[in-house]
Design a protein that fits this description.
By secondary structure, the chain is of the alpha/beta class. It folds into 3 domains: 3-244, Aminohydrolase, N-terminal nucleophile (Ntn) domain (Glutamine Phosphoribosylpyrophosphate, subunit 1, domain 1), CATH 3.60.20; 253-440, Glucose-6-phosphate isomerase like protein, domain 1 (Rossmann fold, 3-Layer(aba) Sandwich), CATH 3.40.50; 444-587, Rossmann fold, CATH 3.40.50. Helices cover 34% and strands 22% of the residues. Bound molecules: fructose -6-phosphate (F6R).
Length: 597
């Protein structure tokens, strides 16, 4: 939530660099944007409501070696130009961009008002530059002033701060991510600098060398040197330089009109990449599950649905009971966690605040944490005891698609390893990957586009599933809701007759997800119950059945069935959005990386 990006170094177009890089962080928030560039006589600040992608980079003509920028997902204060970041100190010499929440901002604001400060916005952020200004008066040292101010903030935040008096960029984090991009190549000694961003796509085209800030750390750089330190103690920290493995092109949408469709198509390869895990490591993790007194799976939204499907994977494939909880609910489980418990957390971004909280709860009880994440180097991956990467490549559309199928693949693989059948599981997933490749052909995609055309005027849509298709029905609803704004709900097939069936009217579209397994007949009965009330039944299944008004064929992928069943729903959601005139990559009210609780 919110993207922040700063640059300081030898280049003279810092404003252009940050605005351009910020466009790659738009997925983190897109209701307003802003930039502050340092120029000889002060700061040039531009900000406005609207999407950063619409801003013309060429207009940032000023010569500047230091700039910071922000793309906003509003928390405190509406979407207005005044609430857009950067925010400035009273004397307009200090600029700050911020991701996260300063929970005690109201008290700080009152205190600052009594000292003569005036506030222009409704944001929590604005207290930051004003407090730094107060501290600067006391110490005369900008970095020390930022540190002292940070010591007074409650909450989770990442900030970038700059001052007109020097070419110094200061960053600090607790909770929200910050990554340093290093531009120091001995072959080009005159071209140097440091980038600091919420995520690597902001600066990936300049460098693939990064350094991560951990929670409670800050960094001070003038572009030539950089010093990491602990915010509390001031003690300096050594940082390793790490190489990012993904290429710039992987984050590009190429010839596709939207990232969402590109990422759906990426699944032709990404499932196989996710399944191609180190076998020794998977076996070790399976052992850890075997030995744990209670294994818990947590995630949020789509990732949570992968965890819920894994409950069924572990039960069907490995005769093992594991427990799923949405990450935001996990905190209450601390009553019975012990140092023999195991927590498996699943997250695309590796930065989701609710997931981090669940990890902290588990760790406080001595439990071990396994993380399944897509973003290499993310906070969750660094804080976990073991990490498995999905290797799906960057996911830019807000709606998660290829990360989900990668998560399902890795979880299924672990279930197979637990059953002592790792090789068999890997083979199944490789076959599934090739089935997905065949399935996502232009004719198939066209059929789903036509189906979207047919049902696009309906404002209600229901999806049913049983066993692992129950979480996939819920995931289908998330996908349809978030990109097309159609009211969609996913149910366990057997639950409809206990209430929700009252919602069905003549022609209501209902999607039934099913495979060829022990629950197929139950699902067909549930579909018939709906049809008898007038529903228009769309069957997503390997075999046709007279109950279906429309049949979307999926391959018979056995235990990997949920992976193939969800893909046509992703495509359908995409076309529903486009045909209803919505931008599927940037749904209203949402952001890709949810770093607030
Ligand atoms: C929906 C979606 C969200 C995320 C959720 C968790 O399409 O993308 O529901 O799955 O916000 O995010 P991560 O996986 O980054 O922890």
């Amino acid at each position: 939530m919110c993207g922040i990006f700063g640059y300081v170094g030898s280049r003279k177009d810092a404003g252009k660099i940050v605005i351009d890089g910020l466009k790659n962080l738009e997925y983190r928030g897109y209701d307003s944007w802003g930039v502050a560039s340092k120029v000889p006589d002060g700061l040039i600040v531009r900000k406005d409501i609207g999407k950063i992608s619409t801003v013309d980079t060429a207009t940032f003509e000023e010569e500047s070696e230091l700039a910071i920028a922000h793309t906003r997902w509003a928390t405190h204060g509406g979407v207005t130009q005044l609430n857009a970041h950067p925010h400035l100190s009273e004397d307009r010499t200090i600029a700050v961009v911020h991701n996260g929440i300063v929970e005690n901002y109201a008290a700080l604001r009152d205190e600052l008002i009594t000292k003569g400060h005036t506030f222009l916005s409704q944001t929590d952020t604005e207290v930051i530059p004003h407090l730094i200004e107060e501290e600067l008066r006391k110490t005369g040292d900008f970095a020390a002033a930022v540190r002292n101010a940070c010591l007074r903030f409650d909450g989770r935040y990442a900030i970038l701060a700059m001052h007109t008096a020097s070419n110094t960029l200061v960053a600090a984090r607790t909770g929200s991510p910050l990554i340093v991009g290093v531009l120091h190549n001995p072959e080009t000694p005159d071209d140097y600098g440091y980038f600091i961003a919420s995520d690597t796509p902001a600066f990936r085209k300049y460098t693939h060398i990064v350094q991560y800030l951990d929670d409670g750390e800050m960094v001070v750089t003038d572009g030539k040197t950089i010093i990491f330190s602990d915010i509390q103690t001031g003690e300096e920290r050594e940082k390793r330089e790490i190489e990012i493995t993904w290429e710039v092109e992987e984050a590009d949408k190429g010839d596709f009109e939207h990232y969402m469709l590109k990422e759906i198509m990426d699944q032709k390869e990404s499932v196989a990449r996710a399944a191609n895990q180190d076998e020794v490591q998977i076996q070790t993790l399976a052992e850890a599950i075997k030995n744990a007194y209670g294994t818990f799976l947590v995630g949020c939204g789509t990732a949570g649905k992968a965890c819920m499907a894994a409950e069924y994977f572990f039960s069907v494939v490995a005769n093992k009971h594991v427990n799923y909880a949405p990450a935001s609910e996990f905190k209450v489980y601390h009553h019975f966690l012990t140092d023999r418990s195991l927590l498996i957390v699943v997250s695309q971004s590796g930065e989701t605040a609710d997931v981090l909280e669940a990890m902290h709860v588990a760790k406080s009880k001595g439990a071990k944490v396994l993380a399944i994440v897509n973003v290499q180097g993310s906070t969750i991956s660094r804080e976990a005891d073991y990490t498995l990467l999905l290797n799906a490549g960057p996911e830019r559309a807000v709606a998660s698609t290829k990360a989900l199928t990668g998560q399902l693949a890795v979880l299924l693989l672990i279930a197979y390893a637990l059953a002592g059948k790792l090789k068999e599981g890997k083979m199944l997933l490789m076959e599934t990957s090739s089935m997905i490749n065949d399935m996502l052909n232009p004719r198939y995609v066209d059929r789903l586009s036509n189906l979207a055309e047919r049902i696009k005027e309906h404002e209600d849509l229901y999806i049913i599933g049983k066993s692992w298709h129950y979480p996939m029905a819920m995931e289908s609803a998330i996908k349809i809701q978030e990109v097309s704004y159609v009211h969609a709900e996913g149910f366990a097939g057997g639950e409809l007759k206990h209430g929700p069936i009252a919602l069905i009217e003549e022609g209501t579209p209902c999607i039934a997800l099913m495979g060829k397994d022990e629950v197929t007949n139950d699902m067909l009965s549930n579909a018939m119950e709906l049809k008898a009330r007038g529903a228009f039944i769309i069957g997503v299944a390997p075999e046709n059945n007279p109950v279906f008004d429309e049949w979307i064929k999926v391959p018979d992928a056995k235990d990997a069935q949920p992976i193939v069943s969800i893909i046509p729903i992703q495509v359908l959601s995409y076309f529903l959005a486009v045909k209803r005139g919505k931008n599927p990559d940037m749904p209203r009210n949402l952001a890709k990386s949810v770093t607030v609780k």
